[in-house]
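Pipeline run #58 for the internal structure catalog. This entry was flagged by the ingest filter as a single-chain record with no existing model, so it goes straight to prediction. Upstream metadata was stripped on purpose; only the residue string is passed forward. Reviewer on rotation: M.T. Logging verbosity set to normal.
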Amino acid sequence: MARGRCALLLAVLLLGGCASVQDVTGVATQQDLVQLRTDVTIAQQRAQRALGEAEAALAQAQRRERERDGEAERRLAALAERVDALTSSLTTLSGQLDELNSRVDALSRQPRAAAPAPTATRSPSAVPAVPAAAAPPPAAGGNRPTTNALQPQDIYQAAYLDFSKGSYALAIAGFREFLRRFPDQALAGAAQYWIGEAHFSLARGYTNAGQSQPATEALEQAVQEFRKVLANYPRSDKAPASLYKEALVLLELKQPAVAEQRLQYLVETFPQSEESALARERLAALRPR
């Protein structure tokens, strides 16, 4: 131990240029000096090696930290983009709802001079063709006292106008409001049918935009809405059309067996309808020869 301390002191003095070997000690030998230099060289090499390893570890740690920061920034940016999209959708829906409320309020304040024409339920043989998206029957004949009460025809016509303009979400809200207020009115079955058509149209828009999941959800909702026509309004003029459109939606949902059943039911239940002829054509294409 004493020899090691002596060697260390000697190395320090020599390296500093303060004295020669003889000046430091009179007993240091050439062998001691050689050993001292060897020890110092080894220590320097170890120190340099340790420094290099420490610098490499630090660089690696910094690189990993940058990568984590970059991934975190990407995730944060994606999340912010999604929030912006949802906010935009919410704003659009809120605007549509405000527009609908304003329209309903305005209609409720407008005086009406003519009463709506009563619409009798027709037999299945007198049902219009599916492609004909005719507007609702206009008000007809006879004057009545002016009133500010909101009439069924007002809400129905406003909702149909939204549908014809492609404002499908607004049209759905309008037809639902019609059904909520006038569930037993003669146009209730038609209103329910147009809700199904609106969802079907929304599905096409999602498909064209490459949004498969929303498109599938809209198609499934359309099936449910079309089925409500036959379930709740079996004598409605739109019953055959709702069956046919339901089958078309089922085909898009890759459910040909169920679609075939609905088409067959349409043919058997409404054999004289124009939709029945269309259903027979579809069945011939679906069934193998």
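catalog note: The chain has two domains: 2-76, 151-289.
catalog note: The CA atoms of residues 56 and 213 lie 48 Å apart.
status: ready for reviewer M.T.
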